[in-house]
Protein backbone atom coordinates (compact mmCIF):
# COMPACT_ATOMS: atom_id res chain seq x y z
CA UNK A 1 0.00 0.00 0.00
CA UNK A 2 2.88 2.37 0.76
CA UNK A 3 4.31 1.71 -2.70
CA UNK A 4 0.92 2.43 -4.26
CA UNK A 5 0.63 5.74 -2.40
CA UNK A 6 4.17 6.65 -3.39
CA UNK A 7 3.37 6.03 -7.06
CA UNK A 8 0.21 8.13 -6.78
CA UNK A 9 2.24 10.93 -5.24
CA UNK A 10 4.73 10.83 -8.12
CA UNK A 11 1.89 11.14 -10.62
CA UNK A 12 0.49 14.16 -8.78
CA UNK A 13 3.86 15.93 -8.88
CA UNK A 14 4.24 15.85 -12.68
CA UNK A 15 3.70 19.43 -13.85
CA UNK A 16 3.31 18.45 -17.50
CA UNK A 17 0.47 16.11 -16.53
CA UNK A 18 -1.40 18.87 -14.76
CA UNK A 19 -0.80 21.20 -17.70
CA UNK A 20 -2.28 18.65 -20.10
CA UNK A 21 -5.17 18.10 -17.68
CA UNK A 22 -6.10 21.79 -17.62
CA UNK A 23 -5.67 22.16 -21.38
CA UNK A 24 -8.12 19.29 -21.90
CA UNK A 25 -10.52 20.76 -19.34
CA UNK A 26 -10.43 24.21 -20.95
CA UNK A 27 -10.83 22.63 -24.38
CA UNK A 28 -14.06 20.88 -23.36
CA UNK A 29 -15.44 24.03 -21.73
CA UNK A 30 -14.53 26.07 -24.80
CA UNK A 31 -16.17 23.56 -27.10
CA UNK A 32 -19.37 23.65 -25.03
CA UNK A 33 -19.45 27.46 -25.19
CA UNK A 34 -18.86 27.36 -28.94
CA UNK A 35 -21.58 24.74 -29.34
CA UNK A 36 -23.94 26.85 -27.25
CA UNK A 37 -23.24 29.96 -29.32
CA UNK A 38 -23.90 28.04 -32.57
CA UNK A 39 -27.18 26.73 -31.15
CA UNK A 40 -28.29 30.22 -30.17
CA UNK A 41 -27.38 31.61 -33.61
CA UNK A 42 -29.40 28.88 -35.33
CA UNK A 43 -32.32 29.53 -32.99
CA UNK A 44 -32.24 33.25 -33.81
CA UNK A 45 -31.90 32.41 -37.51
CA UNK A 46 -35.07 30.30 -37.31
CA UNK A 47 -36.90 33.20 -35.68
CA UNK A 48 -35.66 35.62 -38.35
CA UNK A 49 -36.75 33.23 -41.11
CA UNK A 50 -40.26 32.97 -39.71
CA UNK A 51 -40.43 36.75 -39.44
CA UNK A 52 -39.38 36.99 -43.10
CA UNK A 53 -42.02 34.44 -44.11
CA UNK A 54 -44.70 36.33 -42.21
CA UNK A 55 -43.83 39.59 -43.93
CA UNK A 56 -43.53 37.92 -47.36
CA UNK A 57 -46.95 36.28 -47.07
CA UNK A 58 -48.45 39.53 -45.83
CA UNK A 59 -46.99 41.34 -48.84
CA UNK A 60 -48.34 38.67 -51.16
CA UNK A 61 -51.76 39.05 -49.54
CA UNK A 62 -51.69 42.80 -50.20
CA UNK A 63 -50.72 42.18 -53.82
CA UNK A 64 -53.55 39.65 -54.18
CA UNK A 65 -55.99 42.20 -52.67
CA UNK A 66 -54.96 44.81 -55.25
CA UNK A 67 -55.33 42.28 -58.06
CA UNK A 68 -58.75 41.35 -56.71
CA UNK A 69 -59.83 44.98 -56.73
CA UNK A 70 -58.66 45.42 -60.31
CA UNK A 71 -60.52 42.30 -61.38
CA UNK A 72 -63.71 43.55 -59.69
CA UNK A 73 -63.39 46.90 -61.44
CA UNK A 74 -62.95 45.08 -64.75
CA UNK A 75 -66.04 42.99 -64.01
CA UNK A 76 -64.10 39.69 -64.03
CA UNK A 77 -65.80 37.93 -61.12
CA UNK A 78 -64.00 34.63 -61.73
CA UNK A 79 -60.58 36.27 -61.45
CA UNK A 80 -61.73 38.30 -58.46
CA UNK A 81 -62.75 35.12 -56.67
CA UNK A 82 -59.42 33.51 -57.49
CA UNK A 83 -57.45 36.47 -56.13
CA UNK A 84 -59.70 36.53 -53.06
CA UNK A 85 -58.84 32.91 -52.29
CA UNK A 86 -55.15 33.67 -52.80
CA UNK A 87 -55.40 36.66 -50.46
CA UNK A 88 -57.06 34.60 -47.73
CA UNK A 89 -54.47 31.84 -48.13
CA UNK A 90 -51.56 34.28 -47.89
CA UNK A 91 -53.11 36.00 -44.87
CA UNK A 92 -53.52 32.66 -43.12
CA UNK A 93 -49.94 31.67 -43.94
CA UNK A 94 -48.70 35.01 -42.65
CA UNK A 95 -50.59 34.57 -39.38
CA UNK A 96 -49.29 31.01 -38.98
CA UNK A 97 -45.70 32.12 -39.57
CA UNK A 98 -46.16 35.02 -37.15
CA UNK A 99 -47.58 32.68 -34.52
CA UNK A 100 -44.73 30.19 -35.00
CA UNK A 101 -42.26 33.04 -34.69
CA UNK A 102 -43.76 33.92 -31.31
CA UNK A 103 -43.55 30.28 -30.23
CA UNK A 104 -39.88 30.10 -31.24
CA UNK A 105 -39.03 33.46 -29.68
CA UNK A 106 -40.70 32.52 -26.37
CA UNK A 107 -39.47 28.91 -26.60
CA UNK A 108 -42.98 27.56 -26.21
CA UNK A 109 -41.94 24.11 -27.38
CA UNK A 110 -45.20 22.43 -26.38
CA UNK A 111 -47.08 24.12 -29.21
CA UNK A 112 -44.32 23.50 -31.75
CA UNK A 113 -44.10 19.82 -30.84
CA UNK A 114 -47.88 19.55 -31.16
CA UNK A 115 -47.64 21.01 -34.68
CA UNK A 116 -45.00 18.43 -35.58
CA UNK A 117 -47.17 15.61 -34.28
CA UNK A 118 -50.15 16.83 -36.32
CA UNK A 119 -48.02 16.92 -39.46
CA UNK A 120 -46.54 13.45 -38.89
CA UNK A 121 -49.64 11.47 -37.93
CA UNK A 122 -51.23 11.56 -41.42
CA UNK A 123 -48.02 10.13 -42.90
CA UNK A 124 -48.53 6.96 -40.86
CA UNK A 125 -52.31 6.68 -40.60
CA UNK A 126 -53.07 7.12 -44.31
CA UNK A 127 -51.35 4.91 -46.87
CA UNK A 128 -51.67 7.73 -49.39
CA UNK A 129 -49.07 9.60 -47.38
CA UNK A 130 -46.65 6.69 -47.32
CA UNK A 131 -43.70 8.93 -48.13
CA UNK A 132 -42.55 12.42 -47.29
CA UNK A 133 -39.85 14.10 -49.35
CA UNK A 134 -36.74 16.20 -48.91
CA UNK A 135 -36.33 17.86 -52.28
CA UNK A 136 -37.05 14.92 -54.60
CA UNK A 137 -36.03 11.99 -52.37
CA UNK A 138 -38.35 10.26 -49.86
CA UNK A 139 -37.79 10.11 -46.11
CA UNK A 140 -37.99 6.52 -44.93
CA UNK A 141 -41.11 5.41 -43.09
CA UNK A 142 -38.90 4.20 -40.25
CA UNK A 143 -37.64 7.76 -39.71
CA UNK A 144 -41.18 9.12 -39.80
CA UNK A 145 -42.35 6.53 -37.24
CA UNK A 146 -39.36 7.11 -34.95
CA UNK A 147 -39.71 10.89 -35.18
CA UNK A 148 -43.40 10.75 -34.30
CA UNK A 149 -42.83 8.59 -31.24
CA UNK A 150 -39.98 10.83 -30.12
CA UNK A 151 -42.26 13.88 -30.39
CA UNK A 152 -44.97 12.11 -28.42
CA UNK A 153 -42.52 11.35 -25.63
CA UNK A 154 -41.27 14.94 -25.60
CA UNK A 155 -44.87 16.07 -25.32
CA UNK A 156 -45.72 13.58 -22.58
CA UNK A 157 -42.86 14.65 -20.28
CA UNK A 158 -42.78 18.33 -21.36
CA UNK A 159 -39.15 18.05 -22.51
CA UNK A 160 -37.28 20.84 -24.31
CA UNK A 161 -35.99 19.50 -27.64
CA UNK A 162 -32.66 19.98 -29.39
CA UNK A 163 -32.18 22.98 -31.65
CA UNK A 164 -32.29 22.14 -35.37
CA UNK A 165 -31.72 24.24 -38.45
CA UNK A 166 -35.34 24.19 -39.65
CA UNK A 167 -38.66 25.78 -38.75
CA UNK A 168 -40.62 22.75 -39.93
CA UNK A 169 -40.65 19.19 -38.59
CA UNK A 170 -37.49 18.40 -36.61
CA UNK A 171 -36.83 14.92 -37.95
CA UNK A 172 -34.86 12.38 -35.97
CA UNK A 173 -32.17 11.04 -38.34
CA UNK A 174 -31.88 7.25 -38.54
CA UNK A 175 -29.78 4.70 -40.40
CA UNK A 176 -32.77 3.86 -42.61
CA UNK A 177 -32.45 6.96 -44.80
CA UNK A 178 -30.39 6.78 -47.97
CA UNK A 179 -30.07 10.23 -49.50
CA UNK A 180 -27.55 11.35 -52.09
CA UNK A 181 -26.20 14.51 -53.68
CA UNK A 182 -27.57 17.87 -52.60
CA UNK A 183 -30.46 16.16 -50.82
CA UNK A 184 -28.01 14.46 -48.47
CA UNK A 185 -26.40 17.82 -47.69
CA UNK A 186 -29.79 19.37 -47.02
CA UNK A 187 -30.85 16.42 -44.85
CA UNK A 188 -27.67 16.58 -42.78
CA UNK A 189 -28.13 20.32 -42.38
CA UNK A 190 -31.71 20.18 -41.10
CA UNK A 191 -31.18 17.10 -38.89
CA UNK A 192 -27.96 18.29 -37.23
CA UNK A 193 -28.87 18.74 -33.57
CA UNK A 194 -27.49 21.21 -31.07
CA UNK A 195 -27.95 20.58 -27.36
CA UNK A 196 -27.80 23.69 -25.23
CA UNK A 197 -28.12 21.80 -21.96
CA UNK A 198 -25.38 19.86 -20.20
CA UNK A 199 -26.91 16.39 -20.50
CA UNK A 200 -27.78 16.95 -24.16
CA UNK A 201 -24.31 18.23 -25.00
CA UNK A 202 -22.65 15.29 -23.27
CA UNK A 203 -24.98 12.92 -25.13
CA UNK A 204 -23.83 14.45 -28.41
CA UNK A 205 -20.17 14.27 -27.39
CA UNK A 206 -20.48 10.55 -26.70
CA UNK A 207 -21.87 10.09 -30.22
CA UNK A 208 -18.70 11.77 -31.56
CA UNK A 209 -16.16 9.32 -30.03
CA UNK A 210 -15.60 11.61 -27.04
CA UNK A 211 -15.23 8.72 -24.61
CA UNK A 212 -12.44 6.76 -26.36
CA UNK A 213 -10.59 10.01 -27.13
CA UNK A 214 -10.68 11.10 -23.49
CA UNK A 215 -9.61 7.64 -22.30
CA UNK A 216 -6.69 7.63 -24.77
CA UNK A 217 -5.58 11.02 -23.47
CA UNK A 218 -5.84 9.69 -19.92
CA UNK A 219 -3.77 6.57 -20.56
CA UNK A 220 -1.17 8.69 -22.37
CA UNK A 221 -0.88 10.93 -19.31
CA UNK A 222 -0.94 8.28 -16.57
CA UNK A 223 0.11 5.00 -18.17
CA UNK A 224 3.86 5.55 -18.40
CA UNK A 225 4.78 4.49 -14.87
CA UNK A 226 7.26 1.89 -16.12
CA UNK A 227 8.40 3.12 -19.53
CA UNK A 228 9.24 6.60 -18.19
CA UNK A 229 11.55 5.10 -15.55
CA UNK A 230 13.28 2.47 -17.64
CA UNK A 231 15.14 4.78 -19.99
CA UNK A 232 18.69 6.01 -19.87
CA UNK A 233 17.95 9.33 -18.18
CA UNK A 234 15.39 8.18 -15.61
CA UNK A 235 16.29 4.94 -13.92
CA UNK A 236 13.65 4.83 -11.20
CA UNK A 237 13.31 1.09 -11.56
CA UNK A 238 16.91 0.68 -10.44
CA UNK A 239 15.98 2.29 -7.14
CA UNK A 240 13.20 -0.26 -6.63
CA UNK A 241 15.59 -3.08 -7.50
CA UNK A 242 17.60 -2.27 -4.37
CA UNK A 243 14.56 -2.55 -2.08
CA UNK A 244 13.42 -5.81 -0.41
CA UNK A 245 10.12 -6.42 -2.17
CA UNK A 246 8.92 -8.35 -5.21
CA UNK A 247 8.52 -7.21 -8.77
CA UNK A 248 4.86 -8.19 -8.52
CA UNK A 249 4.31 -5.64 -5.80
CA UNK A 250 6.00 -2.98 -7.90
CA UNK A 251 4.04 -3.94 -11.00
CA UNK A 252 0.64 -3.69 -9.36
CA UNK A 253 1.56 -0.44 -7.59
CA UNK A 254 2.43 1.19 -10.90
CA UNK A 255 -0.45 -0.42 -12.78
CA UNK A 256 -3.09 0.44 -10.17
CA UNK A 257 -1.92 4.02 -9.56
CA UNK A 258 -2.01 4.88 -13.26
CA UNK A 259 -5.35 3.14 -13.70
CA UNK A 260 -6.87 5.02 -10.77
CA UNK A 261 -5.79 8.39 -12.14
CA UNK A 262 -6.98 7.50 -15.63
CA UNK A 263 -10.41 6.63 -14.24
CA UNK A 264 -10.51 9.87 -12.27
CA UNK A 265 -9.44 11.87 -15.32
CA UNK A 266 -12.10 10.24 -17.51
CA UNK A 267 -14.95 10.86 -15.09
CA UNK A 268 -13.89 14.46 -14.47
CA UNK A 269 -13.93 15.13 -18.22
CA UNK A 270 -17.37 13.51 -18.52
CA UNK A 271 -18.67 15.72 -15.71
CA UNK A 272 -17.16 18.92 -17.12
CA UNK A 273 -19.94 19.69 -19.67
CA UNK A 274 -22.61 19.09 -17.02
CA UNK A 275 -20.95 21.33 -14.43
CA UNK A 276 -20.24 24.03 -17.01
CA UNK A 277 -23.85 24.06 -18.19
CA UNK A 278 -25.02 24.94 -14.67
CA UNK A 279 -23.63 28.45 -15.24
CA UNK A 280 -25.48 28.88 -18.54
CA UNK A 281 -28.57 26.97 -19.76
CA UNK A 282 -28.78 24.21 -17.13
CA UNK A 283 -28.49 20.44 -17.42
CA UNK A 284 -31.73 19.54 -19.21
CA UNK A 285 -33.95 16.49 -18.74
CA UNK A 286 -32.73 12.95 -18.09
CA UNK A 287 -35.99 11.67 -19.53
CA UNK A 288 -35.03 12.66 -23.05
CA UNK A 289 -35.78 9.69 -25.35
CA UNK A 290 -32.88 7.83 -26.98
CA UNK A 291 -33.69 5.70 -30.03
CA UNK A 292 -32.72 2.02 -29.88
CA UNK A 293 -33.00 -0.18 -32.98
CA UNK A 294 -34.49 -3.63 -32.51
CA UNK A 295 -32.75 -4.79 -35.67
CA UNK A 296 -33.83 -6.64 -38.77
CA UNK A 297 -33.91 -10.40 -39.23
CA UNK A 298 -31.06 -11.87 -41.32
CA UNK A 299 -32.19 -13.30 -44.67
CA UNK A 300 -32.47 -17.13 -44.72
CA UNK A 301 -30.95 -17.02 -48.22
CA UNK A 302 -27.61 -15.61 -47.08
CA UNK A 303 -26.06 -12.31 -46.02
CA UNK A 304 -26.10 -11.03 -49.60
CA UNK A 305 -29.88 -10.71 -49.36
CA UNK A 306 -29.97 -8.93 -46.00
CA UNK A 307 -31.99 -5.71 -46.17
CA UNK A 308 -33.54 -3.27 -43.73
CA UNK A 309 -37.32 -2.95 -43.78
CA UNK A 310 -38.31 0.68 -43.02
CA UNK A 311 -42.02 -0.10 -42.71
CA UNK A 312 -41.88 -3.16 -40.49
CA UNK A 313 -38.61 -3.04 -38.53
CA UNK A 314 -39.27 -2.14 -34.91
CA UNK A 315 -37.58 0.12 -32.39
CA UNK A 316 -37.98 1.42 -28.88
CA UNK A 317 -36.77 4.31 -26.78
CA UNK A 318 -34.85 4.43 -23.53
CA UNK A 319 -34.48 7.46 -21.31
CA UNK A 320 -31.28 9.46 -21.24
CA UNK A 321 -30.71 8.49 -17.61
CA UNK A 322 -30.61 4.80 -18.59
CA UNK A 323 -28.29 5.63 -21.47
CA UNK A 324 -25.87 7.47 -19.18
CA UNK A 325 -25.96 4.66 -16.63
CA UNK A 326 -24.81 2.22 -19.31
CA UNK A 327 -22.14 4.67 -20.45
CA UNK A 328 -20.91 5.00 -16.86
CA UNK A 329 -20.40 1.27 -16.35
CA UNK A 330 -18.93 0.87 -19.81
CA UNK A 331 -16.49 3.75 -19.18
CA UNK A 332 -14.91 1.83 -16.32
CA UNK A 333 -14.40 -1.27 -18.47
CA UNK A 334 -13.15 0.76 -21.44
CA UNK A 335 -10.60 2.55 -19.27
CA UNK A 336 -9.33 -0.79 -17.92
CA UNK A 337 -9.13 -2.23 -21.44
CA UNK A 338 -7.32 0.65 -23.16
CA UNK A 339 -5.12 1.28 -20.15
CA UNK A 340 -4.09 -2.41 -20.08
CA UNK A 341 -3.28 -2.32 -23.81
CA UNK A 342 -1.21 0.83 -23.39
CA UNK A 343 0.55 -0.53 -20.31
CA UNK A 344 1.56 -3.66 -22.24
CA UNK A 345 2.89 -1.56 -25.11
CA UNK A 346 4.89 0.56 -22.67
CA UNK A 347 6.73 -2.55 -21.50
CA UNK A 348 8.07 -3.08 -25.01
CA UNK A 349 8.34 0.50 -26.30
CA UNK A 350 9.72 3.27 -24.12
CA UNK A 351 8.42 6.16 -26.24
CA UNK A 352 4.92 7.27 -25.03
CA UNK A 353 4.23 9.05 -28.32
CA UNK A 354 4.74 5.90 -30.37
CA UNK A 355 2.66 3.90 -27.89
CA UNK A 356 -0.35 6.21 -28.07
CA UNK A 357 -0.17 6.35 -31.88
CA UNK A 358 -0.11 2.55 -32.05
CA UNK A 359 -2.99 2.18 -29.61
CA UNK A 360 -5.01 4.93 -31.27
CA UNK A 361 -4.48 3.35 -34.69
CA UNK A 362 -5.45 -0.11 -33.46
CA UNK A 363 -8.56 1.30 -31.83
CA UNK A 364 -9.66 3.23 -34.91
CA UNK A 365 -8.95 0.43 -37.40
CA UNK A 366 -10.51 -2.25 -35.20
CA UNK A 367 -13.59 -0.14 -34.57
CA UNK A 368 -14.13 0.98 -38.18
CA UNK A 369 -13.15 -1.95 -40.34
CA UNK A 370 -13.66 -5.11 -38.28
CA UNK A 371 -17.14 -4.98 -36.66
CA UNK A 372 -17.11 -8.57 -35.40
CA UNK A 373 -18.71 -10.02 -32.28
CA UNK A 374 -15.44 -11.06 -30.65
CA UNK A 375 -13.40 -8.07 -31.72
CA UNK A 376 -13.10 -5.97 -28.53
CA UNK A 377 -12.58 -2.76 -30.51
CA UNK A 378 -16.05 -3.19 -32.04
CA UNK A 379 -17.48 -2.07 -28.71
CA UNK A 380 -15.42 1.10 -28.35
CA UNK A 381 -18.15 3.17 -30.04
CA UNK A 382 -20.46 2.76 -27.08
CA UNK A 383 -23.25 4.92 -28.52
CA UNK A 384 -23.75 2.60 -31.49
CA UNK A 385 -23.62 -0.41 -29.17
CA UNK A 386 -26.26 0.92 -26.78
CA UNK A 387 -28.53 2.02 -29.64
CA UNK A 388 -27.80 -1.28 -31.45
CA UNK A 389 -26.87 0.57 -34.63
CA UNK A 390 -23.90 -1.70 -35.37
CA UNK A 391 -25.91 -4.84 -34.64
CA UNK A 392 -28.66 -3.65 -36.98
CA UNK A 393 -26.35 -2.68 -39.84
CA UNK A 394 -24.39 -5.93 -39.53
CA UNK A 395 -27.56 -8.05 -39.08
CA UNK A 396 -25.86 -9.59 -36.06
CA UNK A 397 -27.90 -9.37 -32.84
CA UNK A 398 -24.98 -10.88 -30.88
CA UNK A 399 -23.20 -7.51 -30.99
CA UNK A 400 -24.71 -6.09 -27.83
CA UNK A 401 -23.85 -4.17 -24.71
CA UNK A 402 -23.52 -7.12 -22.32
CA UNK A 403 -21.29 -9.04 -24.73
CA UNK A 404 -19.02 -6.03 -25.08
CA UNK A 405 -18.71 -5.53 -21.33
CA UNK A 406 -17.77 -9.17 -20.71
CA UNK A 407 -15.41 -9.37 -23.69
CA UNK A 408 -13.53 -6.18 -22.84
CA UNK A 409 -13.16 -7.19 -19.21
CA UNK A 410 -11.89 -10.69 -20.03
CA UNK A 411 -9.43 -9.39 -22.63
CA UNK A 412 -8.23 -6.77 -20.13
CA UNK A 413 -7.51 -9.48 -17.56
CA UNK A 414 -5.58 -11.50 -20.14
CA UNK A 415 -3.53 -8.48 -21.23
CA UNK A 416 -2.80 -7.53 -17.63
CA UNK A 417 -1.66 -11.07 -16.85
CA UNK A 418 0.63 -11.06 -19.91
CA UNK A 419 2.05 -7.69 -18.81
CA UNK A 420 2.71 -9.01 -15.32
CA UNK A 421 4.41 -12.17 -16.56
CA UNK A 422 6.55 -10.20 -18.96
CA UNK A 423 7.54 -7.67 -16.31
CA UNK A 424 8.29 -10.31 -13.69
CA UNK A 425 10.49 -12.46 -15.94
CA UNK A 426 12.36 -9.92 -18.03
CA UNK A 427 15.26 -8.54 -16.08
CA UNK A 428 16.21 -6.05 -18.74
CA UNK A 429 13.81 -3.52 -17.21
CA UNK A 430 16.10 -3.32 -14.19
CA UNK A 431 19.35 -3.12 -16.09
From TrEMBL:
The chain crosses the membrane at residues 16-34, 209-227, 259-280, 323-345, 352-370, 405-423. This is ABC transporter permease. Keywords: Membrane, Transmembrane, Transmembrane helix. The keyword Membrane applies. It comes from Fervidibacillus halotolerans. The keyword Membrane applies.
Amino acid sequence: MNTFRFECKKLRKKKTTWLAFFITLIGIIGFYLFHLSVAEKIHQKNIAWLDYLSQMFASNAETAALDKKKAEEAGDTEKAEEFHNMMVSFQKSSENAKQDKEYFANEEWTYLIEEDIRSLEPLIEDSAFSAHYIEDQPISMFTVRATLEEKQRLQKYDIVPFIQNTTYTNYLPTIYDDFSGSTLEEWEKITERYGRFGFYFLYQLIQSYFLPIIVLIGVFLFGNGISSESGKKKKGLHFYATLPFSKGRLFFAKYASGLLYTLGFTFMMLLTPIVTSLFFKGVGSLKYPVLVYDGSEPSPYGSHYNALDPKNDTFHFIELQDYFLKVLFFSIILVIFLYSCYFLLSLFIKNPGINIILLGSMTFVGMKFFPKVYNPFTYVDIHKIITREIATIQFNPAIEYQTGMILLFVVSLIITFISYRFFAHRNRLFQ
